[in-house]
Each structure stands twice: as structure tokens, then as C-alpha cells.
Amino acid sequence: MRLLAIETSCDETSVAVVEDGRKVLSNVIASQIAKHAQTGGVVPEVAAREHIAAMMPVLKQALDEAGVTWAEIDAIAVTKEPGLVGSLVVGRMTAAALAFAMNKALLEVNHVHGHMYANWLGDGPEPEFPVLILTVSGGHNELVLMRGHGDFEILAETVDDSAGEAFDKVARLLGLGYPGGPAIEERAKSGNPKAVDFPVALRKEKNFSFSGLKTSVFYYLKENAARLSEETFVNDVAASFQEAAVTALVEKLLQAVRELGVKEVHLSGGVSANRFLRGRIEEELSRVVNAPLFRFPQKMEYCTDNAAMIGAAGYFESL
Ligand code: KG4
Ligand code: ZN
């Protein structure tokens, strides 16, 4: 089954053509990053307008790159929610109009399910259930037990911010711009993760919390405002923040691995692009007897928002 998939939940206009939920024939992503970098974050009204401008060229490019005609598309998948309402509407209306005009079925997909299906995209053996998924982006932060297609049990979620949002806010406080995740990761490479002892919240509790970490970075920087112009200071704060955020994520993941006995562990969502986080999970899993197989998205573009993952979720959830 060949799906045309559309994703417009935040600031990426993306259209993909995906075969049987795994084979990506095209995955075109028009990023609005340059636009939102000017304001230091996404302005919803601006994002919606940008989606309208980008949609038709992106759609055409996705069909061209896949080398398929409308007759070879079986159904249309689109992100239903969650996301910015004005942005979601552009994708949903486009998908609804295309489904009507081309006489195709319309599959509505949850954006977070899309992120979790990013690890089905690409080559190699198909994932085996049960799968434990740590899925973290700017908008969500969850630990999920997946027993089968469309069968998700949320084991833990954030009580306030997501780790991705904390990366973005801390980067802004450090003057590193938008989006924050890649900038923090880069600066942290040259910093000392033990320079500042930032708190790891809710260590013994079920859920995640990242607003306290964000606040403690805020007060630390307020007290040391004069040092913000020092490169090593910024690098050290970035590394220490990343250390605390990654520890908070990995501790809960590993506890669930020990308790549940799953076949695979998957990392997904925008924050799964972080190589330090991937490395820490690999390291911790290497100490577990009979450790489950660890996967993260096969391509960087499947970590952050993209339509291919929506095509995967749409396919597997309609089986
Ligand atoms: O999945 P995504 O594109 O959008 C949402 O659904 O929110 O995720 C974007 C988030 C942003 O918070 C961004 O800072 C974070 O993913 N991110 C990273 C990295 N790359 C993107 N966080 C940490 N390290 C990265 N390398
Ligand atoms: Zn996302």
C-alpha cells in the first residue's frame, strides 16, 4: 500500500510517499527555521501562513521525487493532532481536499504516534513487540509500552515541560538561538558536564518534570550574568544542563527496561537526534543482561517533524 502523507503540526511543511509503512519513496521537508530564528521561537500565525505558501510546491516535489502518479497512491495520511491549530488546519484541509478530489481514503494520524513509528522507517528487520519507547520532542515527553500496532500504554509523561522545550529555553537564555537542541549539543561537546550540579527532578517518581531544571538554569545565569560572554562558561552550562536532562530521561528508561523485559527499546522525537543521549542509552543498556535491541531513527530527518513517519503510522494503524 502506497500512502501520500502530510505533516504540518508545527513549523515544518512536509509531504512524503511511503510504501507499506517502511519504504520511503520521498520525504520532502520545508523548514521554517530561518523565519522563526528571527523571533527566537515559533509564532503560530506566521507558521500557518508559511505552511500555506509551502504546501503546493512541497506536495509537487514529493510526488516528483517518488516518481509516482496519483493513480499509484492508495490513500492519504495526515497529522490530525496535537500541534498548533492554525498549522494543523493547513495540512488537514489539504489532505481532505485531495482525498475528495482524487477519490482516496483519508487516514488521520496522531502526531506522537507518528514519532513512535519513525523507527519502522527504512531497511532491516521489522521491529518486534513488545517495544519500550522513549519519545521526546519540543511538544511531548513520554515513556510508552507498545505491545502491538496502535497499542500504546503511557508509562510516564511530563508533568510540565518536555525535555525538548527545556533545550530550547536554555539555549535562548544562553543566547544560542532557535532551535536550541542542536546548539546546546554542539556547545556541550566542549564543556564540562560536572561544572554545575543542576537538579534531576522526580528521580523516584513515575513521571518526568523539566520546568525546575529550566528555572534553576535561569537563576544560575542570573547570578552569573557577567560571565555569559565567556565561551567556556556557556559551554559548561550547556554541558551541565544536557547532563541533567539526559540523566532524567535515561534513568526512567533503564528502570522500565529492568522491570518489563521488552524485546526492543526505541528512542524517537526531535530530541532523539541528540548523539549524547543516544550514546548514554547505549552505554547503560550494555550493562543490562540480555539487553533489548536499541533503535533510533535510521536518518536524522526521521527524528524531527517529517511526513514519512505519518505515512508509517497511517499504514500500520490501518492494518
Ligand atoms: O519532533 P520535533 O521536530 O517537534 C515537536 O514535535 O516538538 O522536535 C523538536 C524539538 C526541539 O525542542 C529541538 O530543540 C529538539 O527537538 N531537538 C534536539 C536536538 N535536535 C532537535 N534536542 C536535543 N538535541 C538535539 N540534537
Ligand atoms: Zn514532533
Provide the fold topology:
Blueprint lengths: L1 E6 L4 E8 L3 E9 L1 H5 L6 H23 L8 E7 L3 H18 L2 E6 H7 L13 E6 L4 E8 L2 E7 L5 H11 L6 H9 L22 H13 L7 H30 L3 E5 L6 H11 L7 E3 L12 H10 L2
Parallel strand pairs: 1-4, 4-5, 6-9, 9-10
Antiparallel strand pairs: 1-2, 2-3, 6-7, 7-8
The site of 5'-O-[(R)-(carboxyoxy)(hydroxy)phosphoryl]adenosine has 20 residues, from helix 5 and helix 6.
Describe the structure.
This protein is an alpha/beta fold. The chain folds into two domains: 2-123 and 299-317, Nucleotidyltransferase, domain 5; 131-295, ATPase, nucleotide binding domain (Nucleotidyltransferase, domain 5), CATH 3.30.420. It has helices at residues 33-37, 44-66, 85-102, 111-117, 163-173, 180-188, 211-223, 231-260, 275-285, 308-317; strands at residues 2-7, 12-19, 23-31, 75-81, 105-110, 131-136, 141-148, 151-157, 264-268, 293-295. Helix 2 (44-66) packs parallel to helix 3, helix 5 (163-173) packs parallel to helix 7 (211-223) and helix 6 (180-188) crosses helix 8 (231-260). It is globular, with a radius of gyration of 20 Å. The model has no long low-confidence stretch (mean pLDDT 97). Zinc ion binds at residues 111, 115, 137, 139, 270, 305.
Task: Give the cofactors and ligands.
Answer: 5'-O-[(R)-(carboxyoxy)(hydroxy)phosphoryl]adenosine, zinc ion
As for the CATH topology of the largest domain, it is: Nucleotidyltransferase, domain 5
H-E string:
EEEHHEHEHEEEHHHHEHEH
Work out the radius of gyration: 20 Å
CATH class of the largest domain: Alpha Beta
DSSP strand (E) fraction?
15-25%
The CATH superfamily name of the largest domain is: ATPase, nucleotide binding domain
CATH architecture level-2 label of the largest domain: 2-Layer Sandwich
Mean of residue pLDDT? 97
Q: How many helices does DSSP assign?
A: 10
State the oligomer.
single chain
Shape: globular
Order of the strands making up the biggest sheet: 3-2-1-4-5
Domain module tally: 2
Q: Which structural category do the helix and sheet elements fall into?
A: alpha/beta
What is the number of strand segments? 10
Helix content: 40-55%
